[in-house]
Amino acid sequence: MLTWIERLGREGLNFFERLGRANMFLLQLLIGMPGLLLRLRLLILQTYSVGVLSLLIIVVSGMFVGMVLGLQGYNTLVDFGAEESLGVAVALSLVRELGPVVSALLFAGRAGSALTAEIGLMKATEQLSGMEMMAVDPVRRVVVPRFVAGCLSMPLLAAMFSAIGVFGGYFVGVGLLGVDSGAFWSQMQAKVDLYEDILNGVIKSIVFGVVVTWIAVFEGYDAVPTAEGVSRATTRTVVHSALAVLGLDFVLTALMFGD
Amino acid sequence: MVNQENDTGRDRLVEVRGLKFFRGSQPIFQGVDLDIERGKVTAILGPSGTGKTTLLRLIGGQLKPSAGTVHVDGQNVARLNHGDLYELRKKMGMLFQTGALLTDLSVFENVAFPLREHTALPESMIRDLVLMKLHAVGLRGARDLMPAQLSGGMARRVALARAIALDPVMIMYDEPFTGQDPISMGVLVQLIRLLNDALGLTSIIVSHDVAETATIADYIYIVSGGLVVGAGTPEQMAQSESRWVQQFMRGMPDGPVPFHYPAPDYLEDLLVEA
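ok -> structure tokens follow
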């Protein structure tokens, strides 16, 4: 019993110690950010590998999610004769929830895990240590560009996801199931509010982007520098990101829409 | 800095005094004193796992001593702030065991890396400098290869070219000979001595390859169990009376360093009921 409590205590301490390190690391990242202006080339390079290369999975998933929404929405709405509201249903679900959340989950799997593995392996092969000895701060040279690239890419990817999703819903609803095209768009236009819906969705995706990228780069930088350590860190990135995104989504939704 | 000439007239670049270092609760160093003379090749020998790499990290300021001091070029490394430490590191090159080349950059870009980071030289000048450094290690023709395409020996030579890119005062070699075939080994041994003398460097070699290191070192320290157990020129070490030094220099399997890791009595251990 006592050992059990002891273990609980130790786990707790470990958890808070790591949380503290993660926050100190975030502070380091923020301090290192202005220096990035001198290294725009690095930022562009990283935005390409983090953002542009994630585009395919985001676009394809957005398409399918939109199509499923179109189908499900139509089946529900048609019972009430309200199938013309399909556009609103699809757009609101995407912009408020599915766009930010699903693309953040995909982003964590596609880009977050890659960031962790890359930084972790650089640590394991002494590349980070080597930079330090060459008087180059690895946090500024390696981590900051990746962090900023992730934070910039995520909202753009989420927007892309939602936009493609709407077209997916349109394709199924209007193209296949015969909803009126004019009604689809005009209802959407009338009911989706720029601030209430779109802006709140964008805020969500910004928060998710920062959190997921932060977790990913921290896990990589903090990884135990062995093959096993890096593989564990990569797993932790995906798991923690997913939990953080879903948990934060509830909190943010409650704050934004829960009055 | 003020050159620290002592009574023997030796000019020290690195001074380690009463160095203690703990990893967790495990002692790595328990009071080490070392002097690295300017312009010389100093070897720090010792069995694997005695914290030789840790010593280099302490000199480079990547780790802080638990007690004692490390002075490099007159400055106490552990007391420097971030900016001064990075300034000091520009004067140090370090060759990692693995080479630590940046895997996403070509050989040319790896050698150019410190120049691009720390200088504002025009591209043509960087190109000339990089080619000169690569030529010095015999790899001017390999400039377009990626690190993954290099053999272990070549990777270490590229890392060496990178380490001398900023014309440092001192280079630290972490196990430069480990896992090299005889030819690359010969090349590296020669390069270390040649570069040291041609560029007026100070070299520290950390190694457990006694024979190779002894051929080029001016002075040898033997470290074991967290203490310096022997020091002297290679000739002095070869004739040392100390049983410990004898065992290490000749590579005898048993002696003061036992063949067996500490374990309970063999017979008792075997007869324990599973």
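The radius of gyration of chain A is 21 Å.
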